[in-house]
């Protein structure tokens, strides 16, 4: 089955998470991705455990469906190899700190002179412009600057980092959609372009409800635990044996909840709970009232009852429970594959289900420099020339 991005050629100089996640998705959709790792030890993620037969599981998670070479760009020969790769590439992606690509001779202006139609995407912590552009920026710093940490956590507790590297993934998703938009533009016009993606901008762009509250009423988002800022009941509640999530956030669902789940018809006319906006002002009182009833039975009982009456609800899983849930498994969100060194492995599946051009797992993450000879052969290098590059430490073994 042909894939939607078959024929797209991507040269990937990124490492760790945001860039590699972006190019993994492009590879999942059929693009030919050549991952260029720095000489001699490769992507920094290779140093991060856990390890399976000395292969980093972290590295393997976001580098499937790529070919890999290890190239010393501090040598003239290494730089010329990259230039050859660039000549017929559709996309180039990097996540160096701003200014580094210019020093290496791989900045947009330089590569554009080699391939004018190329789409060049830079991912950095703060972007290529602005007073913070030269600062080093990881996901946690972006969470702090965007306000996410300050608005996350319990009301009376300390600010809390979001549980995943959310700005990294937001930047990856921003890069994916931007590259695809630029690719469509190039198909129409023949013109390439430069794309500047930052972790901070990408995550900040997701705070749409919070921005609405601030721009509309001057409200600064506060920590609310699992509670919603403008809807109630819409949060986690304690039961006899744990916690569950309930989302009776509109009037119809609220009334069904009162009548059919907690048997409290008087709440419908209670002045504290008359409308969604009023309930959100009394969210603490509502939480106490609801939990006084939920503590009488266990989570399974309440979740079944909520389902019967069509009220959105769900468990609060630990991650191991998530990865063994029947629905997750039925959606093929866990894939099994064989790695040449690590052996039998599992990875996450494809979140979008295409009817005609689905994502495919074609190859596991490359070993360091695994495709040196293959890629160099395609560029016209002979076996003797490749051996010479190896001896000169332009490529790794």
TrEMBL record:
Organism's domain of life?
Answer: Bacteria
Origin species, per record, is Psychrobacillus mangrovi
Reported EC number(s) for this entry are: 2.8.3.-
Listed GO MF terms = transferase activity
- Protein name, please? CoA transferase
Q: What class of enzyme is it?
A: transferase
Q: Which UniProt keywords apply?
A: Transferase
């Amino acid at each position: 089955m042909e894939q939607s991005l078959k024929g797209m050629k991507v040269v990937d100089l990124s490492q760790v998470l945001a860039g590699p996640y972006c190019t993994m998705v492009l590879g999942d959709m059929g693009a030919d991705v050549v991952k260029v790792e720095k000489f001699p030890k490769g992507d920094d993620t290779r140093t991060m455990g856990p390890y399976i037969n000395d292969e980093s599981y972290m590295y393997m998670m976001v580098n499937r469906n790529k070919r890999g070479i290890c190239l010393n760009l501090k040598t003239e020969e290494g730089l010329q190899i990259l230039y050859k790769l660039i000549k017929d590439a559709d996309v180039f992606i990097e996540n160096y700190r701003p200014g580094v690509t210019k020093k290496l001779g791989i900045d947009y202006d330089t590569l554009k002179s080699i391939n004018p139609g190329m789409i060049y995407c830079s991912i950095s912590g703060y972007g290529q412009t602005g007073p913070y552009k030269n600062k080093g920026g990881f996901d946690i710093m972006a969470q702090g600057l965007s306000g996410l940490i300050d608005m996350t956590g319990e009301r009376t507790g300390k600010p809390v980092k979001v549980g995943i590297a959310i700005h990294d993934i937001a930047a990856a998703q921003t890069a994916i959609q931007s590259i695809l938009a630029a690719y469509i533009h190039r198909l129409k016009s023949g013109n390439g372009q430069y794309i500047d993606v930052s972790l901070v901008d990408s995550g900040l762009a997701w705070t749409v409800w919070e921005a609405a509250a601030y721009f509309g009423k001057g409200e600064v988002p506060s920590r609310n635990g699992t509670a919603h800022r403008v809807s109630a009941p819409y949060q986690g509640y304690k039961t006899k044996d744990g916690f569950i999530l309930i989302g009776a956030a509109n009037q119809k669902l609220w009334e069904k909840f009162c009548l059919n789940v907690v048997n409290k018809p008087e709440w419908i006319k209670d002045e504290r709970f008359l409308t969604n906006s009023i309930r959100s002002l009394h969210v603490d009182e509502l939480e106490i009232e609801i939990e006084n009833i939920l503590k009488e039975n266990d989570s399974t009982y309440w979740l079944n009852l909520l389902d019967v009456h069509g009220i959105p609800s769900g468990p609060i899983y630990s991650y191991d429970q998530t990865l063994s849930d029947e629905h997750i498994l039925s959606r093929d969100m866990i894939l099994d594959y064989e790695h040449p060194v690590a052996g039998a492995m599992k990875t996450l599946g494809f979140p979008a289900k295409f009817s005609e051009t689905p994502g495919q797992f074609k190859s596991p993450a490359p070993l360091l420099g695994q495709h040196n000879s293959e890629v160099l052969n395609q560029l016209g290098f002979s076996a003797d020339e490749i051996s010479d590059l190896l001896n000169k430490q332009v490529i790794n073994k």
